[in-house]
Amino acid sequence: MARHMGEERMNLILLGPPGAGKGTQAKRMSAEWGLIHVSTGDILRDAAKRGTALGLQAKPLMDQGQLVPDAVVNGIIEEWLKGPEARKGFVLDGFPRTLPQAEALSQALVTAKMSLDAVLSFDVPEAVLVDRISGRRSCPACGSVYHVVERPPARDGICDKDGEALIQRADDTPEKVRERNRLYEQKTAPLKAFYAERHLLRPVAGVGTPDGIFADIRRVLGKAA
Ligand code: AP5
Ligand code: MG
Predict the structure, then answer these.
(1) Residue whose CA is closest, atom 49 of ligand 1?
(2) Any catalytic annotation for residue 218?
(3) pLDDT, tens digit, for every residue of 39-75?
(4) Which of 14, 188, 191, 199 could form an SS bridge with 22, CB 3.0 to 4.6 Å?
């Protein structure tokens, strides 16, 4: 029986440096295909905003562009995978980020009798990353993401959806982006080989318009427009 696009369940990982467009594309994939967007960065920022124990532990590390300990993020994802939402298909954005995280994820998926369909990997030059991140503005209420040049809100500094004042992330200065990118190269880029060995790695265009990149994601996943 033919399946509608929206019913297609895929379990995907987005791999890419800070500012690669993981969040931008994950939101689009969620809207188009009904996949659940799971961003460990968003989960940790939300915890920091609410002042929970998790948030208090994570905030100073995040603000400095450092990684939160593996055990902390592994625990978050392992719990989430046990819940009903995980069965709807998901896009993991920002997890895994280290080899121990990738290994923990593999184990958790075996336990949950689930598997990955693809790992989409974005490569973007550092100068483009710094430019994208310096211009990023986010809504603290609904999480919408803008760019002052590429994707400006209708009214300067104000969210189109709910009228909130937009903010800049504390880790979005050019120096911290370079530090985050350095950590990406050191700790996360080795995951490309990890997933290539498992025949899951699919490089996608990292540079271009968000629409052009989404078209490339469709192509790579074999999903017609
Ligand atoms: P996280 O929130 O995951 O940050 P990140 O990986 O550094 O990635 P970003 O969110 O900065 O970039 P993005 O790829 O989502 O780009 P976006 O779509 O917004 O993690 C933050 C912190 O949390 C970490 O540093 C760490 O401390 C902690 N953490 C999270 N997960 C962890 C883990 N697993 N282990 C340990 N610690 C963890 O796009 C960027 C901008 O560019 C936007 O303004 C957008 O509008 C614009 N844009 C997007 N696409 C394009 C395009 N094609 N052309 C032009 N502009 C574009
Ligand atoms: Mg993001």
Answers:
(1) 21
(2) no
(3) 999 999 999 999 999 999 999 999 999 999 999 999 9
(4) 14
- Alpha-carbon distance values, 33 to 105, 151, 191 (Å): 23, 22, 26
- Residue 225: which pLDDT band, with cuts at 50, 70 and 90? confident
Q: In angstroms, rounded to a whole number, what is the distance separating the alpha carbons of residues 50 and 179?
A: 26
CATH of domain 11-125+182-221: 3.40.50.300
Residue 15 forms beta bridges with which residues? 121
Residues 34, 37: Cα–Cα separation, whole Å: 9
CB 174 within 8 A of CB 134: yes
DSSP 3-state of 57: helix
Instruction: Say whether 22 is catalytic.
Output: yes
Please answer whether residues 38 and 49 qualify as being in contact, where contact means their C-beta atoms are separated by less than 8 angstroms: no
How wide is the angle at C-alpha 108 spanned by C-alphas 106 and 113, nearest 5°?
95
Nearest ligand to the CA atom of 65: 1
Per-residue pLDDT of 66-106, as tens digits, reads 999 999 999 999 999 999 999 999 999 999 999 999 999 99
The residue among 18, 25, 138, 128 whose CA lies nearest residue 66 is 18
What is the per-residue pLDDT across 108-133, written as a single tens digit (0 to 9) for each?
999 999 999 999 999 999 999 999 99
Whole-structure pTM value? 0.94
- To test the pocket of ligand 1, the residue of 13, 15, 24, 211 to mutate (highest count of ligand atoms within 8 Å of its CB) is 24
Q: How far is CA 149 from CA 31, 139, 179, 206, in A?
A: 23, 16, 24, 18
